[in-house]
């Protein structure tokens, strides 16, 4: 049965209310982690680093994650005012002189976290995930690269951003790649993530727009027809429109810039940036902390 667009909430705040009522399997808690999502990704843990397995699309998307972050960092002072909620103060800088720090929330098996730790300009990467089986895979894969493991640049924490992160752990880049559509309370989750972004830094992520196109591509084609994504990976009603995300971000005090980049998966070619496609399906988003 295809979804009915008219039953979906028009704003992120209303979506938050619906998600609490319809998707939570337990009483509200400080954590936005979904127990069903933890169970789902636990089953995929052993194949996380197989570039041809169930996580193949994540491996293929990883280079674009870095591309998007570079766009955010290099364009922070050159974008027109229309791309800004509020003008940045003169002292606002995208990262620190000693190197860029990353906090990868919902890091999974460490695909992005490891690649970020290998960058020459990286000072520190901390990966956080609530799924023990997946984190064991991440740590084992890190151990298979002795020089990287010995460098101390990459570490992992088990838990949710709301409950297990030290209050003083902040980073230049806080990433939530393919995470927002898997949590119970996206507004609370993003607010908790924003608290860990240093002034001048960015909260970046990727998610999926809630459209007929995304329902056909992610639910019908990817999960049912082509079987390139395990069945049950996505809940279409948890997808968030880019304009909903932008409107919500624009209301957050102390945040001044917004970026979005639509991407499309082309069979045989991988993920490609397609300008204006953020309203169709997959997209990256970024918001910059000013103070």
Automatic annotation (TrEMBL):
Location within or outside the cell: Mitochondrion inner membrane
Annotated segments matching region Disordered: 78-99
Keyword terms, alphabetized: Magnesium, Membrane, Metal-binding, Methyltransferase, Mitochondrion, Mitochondrion inner membrane, S-adenosyl-L-methionine, Transferase, Ubiquinone, Ubiquinone biosynthesis
Cofactor: Mg(2+)
Residues the record lists as binding Mg(2+): 178, 181-182
GO cellular component entries: extrinsic component of mitochondrial inner membrane
Entry's EC annotation: 2.1.1.64, 2.1.1.-, 2.1.1.114
Signal peptide: none
UniProt catalytic activity: a 3-demethylubiquinol + S-adenosyl-L-methionine = a ubiquinol + S-adenosyl-L-homocysteine + H(+); a 3-demethylubiquinone + S-adenosyl-L-methionine = a ubiquinone + S-adenosyl-L-homocysteine; a 3,4-dihydroxy-5-(all-trans-polyprenyl)benzoate + S-adenosyl-L-methionine = a 4-hydroxy-3-methoxy-5-(all-trans-polyprenyl)benzoate + S-adenosyl-L-homocysteine + H(+)
Enzyme class: transferase
Main location: mitochondrion
Pathway where it operates: Cofactor biosynthesis; ubiquinone biosynthesis
Gene3D superfamilies recorded: Vaccinia Virus protein VP39
Gene Ontology MF, one: 3-demethylubiquinol 3-O-methyltransferase activity
Residue stretches making up the Methyltransferase type domain: 103-204
Listed GO biological process terms: methylation
Role played: O-methyltransferase required for two non-consecutive steps during ubiquinone biosynthesis. Catalyzes the 2 O-methylation of 3,4-dihydroxy-5-(all-trans-polyprenyl)benzoic acid into 4-hydroxy-3-methoxy-5-(all-trans-polyprenyl)benzoic acid. Also catalyzes the last step of ubiquinone biosynthesis by mediating methylation of 3-demethylubiquinone into ubiquinone. Also able to mediate the methylation of 3-demethylubiquinol into ubiquinol.
Protein name stated in the entry: Ubiquinone biosynthesis O-methyltransferase, mitochondrial
Biological source species: Myriangium duriaei CBS 260.36
GN (gene name): COQ3
């Amino acid at each position: 049965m295809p979804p009915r667009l008219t039953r979906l909430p028009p704003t992120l705040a209303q979506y938050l209310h619906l998600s609490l009522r319809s998707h939570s399997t337990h009483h509200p808690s400080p954590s936005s982690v979904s127990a069903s999502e933890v169970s789902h990704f636990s089953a995929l843990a052993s194949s996380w680093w197989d570039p041809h397995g169930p996580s193949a699309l994540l491996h293929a998307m990883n280079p674009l994650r870095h591309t998007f972050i570079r766009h955010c960092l290099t364009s922070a002072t050159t974008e027109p005012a229309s791309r800004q909620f509020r003008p940045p103060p003169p002292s606002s800088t995208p990262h620190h002189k000693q190197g860029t720090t990353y906090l990868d929330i919902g890091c999974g098996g460490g695909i992005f976290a490891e690649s970020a730790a290998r960058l020459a300009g990286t000072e520190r990467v901390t990966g956080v995930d609530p799924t023990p089986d997946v984190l064991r895979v991440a740590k084992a894969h890190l151990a298979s690269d002795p020089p990287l493991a010995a460098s101390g640049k990459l570490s992992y924490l088990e838990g949710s951003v709301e409950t297990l992160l030290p209050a003083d752990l902040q980073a230049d880049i806080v990433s939530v790649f393919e995470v927002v559509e898997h949590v119970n309370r996206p507004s609370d989750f993003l607010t908790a993530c924003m608290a860990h972004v240093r002034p001048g830094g960015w909260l970046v992520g990727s998610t999926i727009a809630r459209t007929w196109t995304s329902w056909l591509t992610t639910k019908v084609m990817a999960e049912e027809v082509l079987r390139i994504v395990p069945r049950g990976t996505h809940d279409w009603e948890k997808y968030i429109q880019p304009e909903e995300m932008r409107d919500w971000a624009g209301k957050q005090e102390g945040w001044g810039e917004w970026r979005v980049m639509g991407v499309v998966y082309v069979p045989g070619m991988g993920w490609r940036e397609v300008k204006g496609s953020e309203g169709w399906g997959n997209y990256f988003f970024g918001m910059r902390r000013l103070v």
